């Protein structure tokens, strides 16, 4: 990897465009280097993972709205598939619908470093354009490998959240780079697409603060849609604001740490394989990633707490989760969000409340993508009582491990201190979620397929499940990428909620 120093430049400075970060990323995207077998295998796993969470979310209202928006843009030739329905639709609208389905339940892959991200958000827009363009399975693998690579590299080097900029600002450029690889575009065209994609996908983090709405699911899908449109314009000869990151009025100078700041972004050297997807990790539980290890920790501690309390959680005086800065301030009590203790809060808010999540996981010894968030579950009086006894504190050691670049130290866990009314203290800690590559039960192909089967049960017919899994696992030799879509029966689709008419 080559570490590139990125800083703001005044307009009067001599700063050739070949030195722009967007141009360096474009060169990585245009590099014809082959994709290693391990990367290709993991790409198949993540396509299966995305399909799993899409099956679980396809009948939910936000996903239904996005699907119906896409259905308002049918095409007679080419086009892309929309999850759940037959037909072909405009690629950018298919990307919006499928991206919303993937993101709705907060249940797909993650990468955490200087910034946060869900790199699987790259897959829907790149697949949509691949289907529209008639690309091969090999082309798609190469495009997705680039999308993951650029997403992870930007997340390693540039923190957005400290300036309250949403992490989708790294997604627009990574999708544009992935599309450049997929479509075999030249460096200059990819450069312009990246600049446009970044310029049109910067937004604040209010989408993840306070009363969190369904826009949290739409936000990355919208970024993918914008990246497709940016790439289309660049292919037609249109340019972008430049230098987009380093300009005097650019992203670094005015949205991030200012004109005197420097960032270091690692990128593969020419001819270096794209392996970043191997550093990412998926979720076993439908909740924000920092809650994955605490859910497993709660399940592990449950028997000890039950034994000590005689099964009466009312005897718990307090629970303090010692954890990282991110966990404390984003999904913990450091956020100062009263909604995180509100039984009437939205599902999106509850999956960003580690206090609620730990309480339910401790009581149930399990976590379910629907039952654990059901209104009647959140309103259970004994749950509310326990929930409001839970708090978080930042522990510098967990923060250090969160940001560590050493894979043997990097961790996203917590130490739980349960104090009972009689003074008994029960403590335990867990650094990594069980499903993490370094965890107790790391996910491999078998676990991805099992996750798909579990979430698709009762939603996708068995024969359609079989057909999809066969197609996905044959991706390197797959010619018809439409086979990566999943169609639901008319009877199952009819269970989707009614929604008001819109513009389309």
From TrEMBL:
Residues annotated as domain MmgE/PrpD C-terminal: 285-475
UniProt cross-references to Pfam families, sorted A to Z: MmgE_PrpD_C, MmgE_PrpD_N
- Which residue range or ranges hold the MmgE/PrpD N-terminal domain? 19-263
Pathway(s) the chain acts in: Carbohydrate metabolism; tricarboxylic acid cycle; isocitrate from oxaloacetate: step 1/2; Organic acid metabolism; propanoate degradation
State the top-level EC class: lyase
Q: For this UniProt record, give its keywords in alphabetical order, as a comma-separated list.
A: Lyase, Tricarboxylic acid cycle
Q: Which Gene Ontology terms cover its molecular function?
A: 2-methylcitrate dehydratase activity; aconitate hydratase activity
Q: Which Gene3D superfamilies match?
A: 2-methylcitrate dehydratase PrpD
The GO annotation for biological process reads:
propionate metabolic process; tricarboxylic acid cycle
Catalytically driven reaction(s)? (2S,3S)-2-methylcitrate = 2-methyl-cis-aconitate + H2O; citrate = D-threo-isocitrate
Could you tell me which InterPro entries the record lists for this protein? Answer: 2-Methylcitrate_Dehydratase, MmgE/PrpD_sf, MmgE/PrpD_sf_1, MmgE/PrpD_sf_2, MmgE_PrpD, MmgE_PrpD_C, MmgE_PrpD_N
Q: What is its EC number?
A: 4.2.1.3, 4.2.1.79
Q: Which family does it belong to?
A: Belongs to the PrpD family.
Listed under subunit, the entry gives: Monomer.
Q: What is this protein called?
A: Aconitate hydratase
């Amino acid at each position: 990897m080559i570490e590139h120093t990125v800083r703001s430049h005044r307009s009067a400075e001599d700063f050739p465009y070949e030195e722009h970060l967007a141009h360096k990323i474009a060169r990585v995207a245009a590099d014809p280097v082959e994709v290693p077998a391990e990367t290709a295998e993991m790409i198949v796993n993540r396509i299966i993972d995305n399909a799993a969470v899409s099956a679980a979310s396809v009948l939910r209202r936000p996903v239904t709205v996005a699907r119906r928006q896409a259905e308002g843009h049918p095409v007679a030739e080419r086009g892309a598939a929309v999850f759940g329905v037959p037909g072909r639709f405009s690629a950018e609208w298919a990307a919006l619908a499928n991206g919303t389905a993937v993101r709705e339940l907060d249940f797909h892959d993650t990468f955490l470093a200087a910034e946060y991200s869900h790199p699987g958000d790259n897959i829907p827009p790149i697949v949509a354009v691949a289907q529209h363009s008639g690309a091969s399975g090999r082309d798609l693998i190469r495009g997705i490998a680039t999308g993951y690579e650029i997403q992870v590299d930007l997340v390693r080097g540039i923190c957005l959240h400290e300036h309250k900029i949403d992490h989708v600002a790294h997604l627009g450029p990574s999708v544009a780079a992935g599309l450049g690889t997929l479509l075999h575009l030249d460096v200059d065209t990819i450069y312009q697409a990246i600049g446009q994609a970044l310029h049109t996908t910067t937004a604040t983090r209010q989408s993840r603060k306070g009363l969190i709405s369904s826009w949290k699911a739409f936000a990355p899908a919208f970024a993918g849609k914008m990246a497709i449109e940016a790439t289309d314009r660049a292919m037609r000869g249109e340019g972008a604001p430049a230098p987009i990151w380093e300009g005097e009025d650019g992203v670094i100078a005015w949205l991030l740490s200012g004109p005197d700041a420097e960032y270091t972004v690692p990128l593969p050297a020419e001819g270096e394989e794209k392996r970043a997807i191997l550093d990412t990790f998926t979720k076993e539980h439908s909740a924000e990633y920092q809650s994955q290890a605490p859910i497993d920790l709660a399940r592990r501690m449950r028997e000890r707490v039950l034994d000590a309390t005689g099964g009466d959680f009312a005897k718990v005086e307090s629970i303090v989760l010692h954890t990282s800065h991110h966990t404390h301030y984003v999904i913990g009590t450091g956020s100062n969000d009263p909604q995180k203790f509100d039984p009437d809060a939205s599902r999106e808010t509850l999956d960003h409340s580690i206090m609620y999540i730990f309480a339910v996981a401790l009581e149930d010894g399990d976590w379910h993508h629907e039952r654990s968030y059901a209104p009647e579950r959140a309103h259970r009086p004994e749950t509310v009582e326990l929930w409001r006894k839970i708090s978080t504190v930042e522990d510098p050691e967990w923060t250090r491990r969160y940001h560590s670049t050493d894979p043997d130290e990097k961790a996203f866990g917590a130490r739980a201190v349960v104090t009972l009314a009689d003074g008994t203290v029960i403590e335990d800690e867990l650094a990594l979620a069980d499903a993490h590559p370094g965890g107790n039960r790391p996910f491999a192909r078998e676990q991805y397929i099992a996750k798909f089967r579990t979430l698709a049960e009762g939603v996708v017919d068995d024969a359609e499940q079989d057909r999809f899994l066969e197609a996905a696992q044959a991706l390197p030799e797959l010619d018809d990428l439409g086979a990566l879509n999943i169609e639901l029966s008319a009877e199952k689709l009819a269970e989707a909620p009614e929604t008001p008419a819109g513009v389309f």
